[in-house]
Amino acid sequence: MNNSSASLVFSPAFTWGVATSAYQIEGGAAADGRGPSIWDTFTHTPGKVIDGSTGDVACDHYHRYAEDVDIIASLAVDSYRFSISWSRVQPLGYGAWNEAGFDFYSNLLGKLEEKNIKAHITLYHWDLPQGLQDKGGWLNRETTLRFAEYAAEVARRFGKRVATIATHNEPWCTANLGYGNAQFAPGVADTVQALQVSHHLLLSHGLAMQAMRAVNSPARLGIVLNQWPATPATDSAEDIAAAEWEYARSVQWFMDPIFKGRYPQKALDRMDMAQFQVHPEDMQIIRQPLDFLGVNYYFRAFVSTENPPRQPEGKLGFSDMGWEIYPSGLTDLLLQLKAEYPDLPAVYITENGMAVADQIVDGKINDQARINYVQWHLEAVQAAIAGGVNVQGYFYWSLLDNFEWNSGYEKRFGLVHVDYATQKRTLKESAYWYRNFIRSQTAA
């Protein structure tokens, strides 16, 4: 890996951004008519979050958004990716819209427009309104229709003010962590339910794409998927087969319906499909043309069938989440996607980042490990572009230290440190590095 960023040169049109999500930063949990989401319910249930915390206040972005946009502008990025809290703009997930909630996002967009920062919005970052969960949540096919109505309303109001709209962020997590192993809201551990939820999420994506196009939204439309290559630990037939299964059940499970109109056979061969409800028209609805694909990349899958399983060497280390740092996996993944899906649209790296156990020393946070991480992954992006992948942008995750789901506030991904007791924001050394790097690109 390079120790210098001098060899990194991207197109002048390349998008540089930072990313956040609503429940992780907004706070204002009951402000101005916002309804509860499944994450409000989950975090207020004892034992669900490691440090017992909630997103009730988080980074208080709901009240501090103007300050946060000023920080974004100071980083020299041209784009900001954030999600909309569905229950803030429609408290139950159905019925009346909440104008105060829409006003918040309109004001946020206005502040971004003042700073010439493009908005990239995500409709769903895991925070289903509790009102819909009470009716069955994503297990209920009717939820897909409610999501399409919500998508159309957001696109109607904001479609001319934003660069892109993504339907879902990481539906794999919604299905497998929310319903497969109960790590995330709503806290269900049932693999059959997880399978059905994954299908309804894809169906809701297709319906939402149709609904947004029906209101003539000029924003580019797409979806954001978390993806990883699967590396067999050895060259044994068992490990190779297990790696192929892992890739099929994760990456191809969501990509094949969107781009090929079917589920991957390698996954179907190993699943009990008896309770998996797919209507005849569903795959055609899911297979909507995308204007862009968002790829979130943090690690590879290192697949071992040994007992106990072999572990990766972690030559570049591990993040504070315990995730192996493996930048070349991003290149491998992108090149594999290009080979498998000839209709692959423009790609944005919509999330990539590292949790570090940051320490403030003399008022500064020297997070060189994070700087190395970003530089290595930008090298990986550059290699993918050289290989013919149409990568058009990179968003660091995340702008701020924030509520990190079931890890609570113990893990810090931000370029900006947040003192949760005082809400003081402090730029880390990685923030200054990222700013200077972007300036070097735009000046080139």
UniProtKB/TrEMBL annotation:
InterPro entries reported in the protein's UniProt record: GH, GH_1_N_CS, Glyco_hydro_1, Glyco_hydro_1_AS, Glyco_hydro_1_beta-glucosidase
Catalysed conversion reaction: Hydrolysis of terminal, non-reducing beta-D-glucosyl residues with release of beta-D-glucose
GO molecular function: beta-galactosidase activity
Active site, renumbered: E351 (nucleophile)
Cited Pfam families: Glyco_hydro_1
EC code(s) of this entry: 3.2.1.21
Database matches in PROSITE patterns: GLYCOSYL_HYDROL_F1_1 (PS00572), GLYCOSYL_HYDROL_F1_2 (PS00653)
Keyword entries, A-Z: Carbohydrate metabolism, Cellulose degradation, Glycosidase, Hydrolase, Polysaccharide degradation
Annotated family: Belongs to the glycosyl hydrolase 1 family.
Protein name: Beta-glucosidase
Species annotation: Undibacterium hunanense
